[in-house]
Structures are given as C-alpha cells and as structure tokens.
Amino acid sequence: QVRPVESGGGLVQAGGSLRLSCEVSGRTFTMHTIGWFRQQPGKEERDFVASLNWRGSNTYYTESVKGRFTISKDTTKNMVHLEMNDLKPEDTAIYYCGASLVARPGWPRKTDFGWWGQGTQVTVSS
Q: How far apart (Å, rounded) are the C-alpha atoms in residues 107 and 113?
C-alpha cells in the first residue's frame, strides 16, 4: 500500500507558474510509476497529465502540457514534483497524484493507478 499526498496548488494569473508536490509514504519500493492527473471543471473523469518511472528515467506528457510542465522526482525524499509554467486558464483543475505498482513498458494506463491522493486545486485566472 502506498499513500500519495499532494500540495502546492493555488490561484495564479495566466502566464504564471506553480509547483505541485506529491509525497508518497508506505511501501514505496513497490511503486513502478507516479503520475499526475487532473479533473477539469465540468468533467467527470481525470485526465492524464504527466508521469515518470519511479526506478527509471522515462517521462511522459500529454500533448497540451509539453514544453510547459516538467515532472521530476526525489527518490531520497519519496517526492514527485510537477513544475507548471506558462499556465493557461484551461489548466484550471483539481490535480491528483497517483501511484501505479504495475510494471508496464511505455505509456502508463490510467487503470494501472490504484493509489491516489486527495487532490489539490489549481486555478488560473485570465
């Protein structure tokens, strides 16, 4: 069992930056992938934003955030960060950190993520 906890959300103007953090506790040695997902207003589902392999170097980004968001990790502190730059109003969402124990090559599947944090709100004003 692993327990992600997010922090770092807030209100920012368009073009601004925010850094989200996810601290993971529990059986972190069993993790394969850590990812960020977001649930935008009016949507029922969480959409994939970015992920990285906990024990490797691969990173993945959804097209709309490439070049603006950067996902990184600090395995010594069991932390994952999402640096978000040039934020746009459409980035407004609740951001969730998820952990997957599934060792799958290539792009992760949302169904692999079985452990979730409580979410953190990001609001980008125009």
A: 12
Q: Tell me the C-alpha distance between 33 and 54, whole Å.
A: 5
What is the mean pLDDT of the segment spanning 97-102? Answer: 95
To which H or E segment does residue 85 belong?
none
Question: In the chain, what is the straight-line distance between the N-terminal and C-terminal CA atoms, in Å?
Answer: 40
Rg (CA), the chain: 14
Residue type, 102: V
Q: Scan for tokens 């850590």, then name that residue.
A: 34
SS3 at position 64: helix
Neighbours of 67 (CB within 10 A): 10
Taking only the tens place, the pLDDT of each residue in 43-56 is 999 999 999 999 98
Mean per-residue pLDDT over the chain, rounded: 95
51-54 long-range contacts (CB < 8 A, ≥24 apart) are 51/108, 52/80, 54/28
Percent of the chain with pLDDT over 90: 89
The SS3 call for residue 73 is strand
